[in-house]
Amino acid sequence: MRSLSVLCLAVLLPGCATIMEGTGQTVSINTDPSGALCRVSRNGATLGEISSTPGSVRVDKSKNDISVSCSKDGYKTATISQSPSFNGSTFGNILLGGIVGAGVDAATGANYNYPGTLHIPLSADPALASKPAAPLVPQPAMYGLHASPES
After folding, report:
1. How far apart (Å, rounded) are the C-alpha atoms in residues 59 and 80?
2. Do residues 42 and 66 lie in contact, with contact meaning Cβ atoms separated by under 8 Å?
3. What CATH number is given to the structural domain containing 114?
4. What does the pLDDT look like over 50-90, one tens digit per residue?
């Protein structure tokens, strides 16, 4: 009877992480300063874009790193690469669902998670840093064009 219960669980729970965690997730992106344009990509393909941070994108889970590139006028473009972490629900799946469930999780990427929030600092671009103000040029005096109280 016990082996029948385990067999039923093995049939009912394949892809446990797929079922419990899903095959996609939302990643929030913040920059300092805010208001940057950010593109999220993986293996050269764009997954999403945020027109002005803070914001978030929905990405399919994968074992592959994502790359986030953010730009803002007056700042250097900042790019980070983020590796996914292994999802703990896959371990339960291996115990309960066996190889079939683990295979489903691996095929869908559900056994990986990216961080929920990424913070990307932007550095001021020295080429665009504030330039010294132009020297003040004295204006020619306007002689004889003043109003007098007697007029």
Report:
1. 16
2. yes
3. 2.60.40
4. 999 999 999 998 889 999 999 999 999 999 999 998 776 55
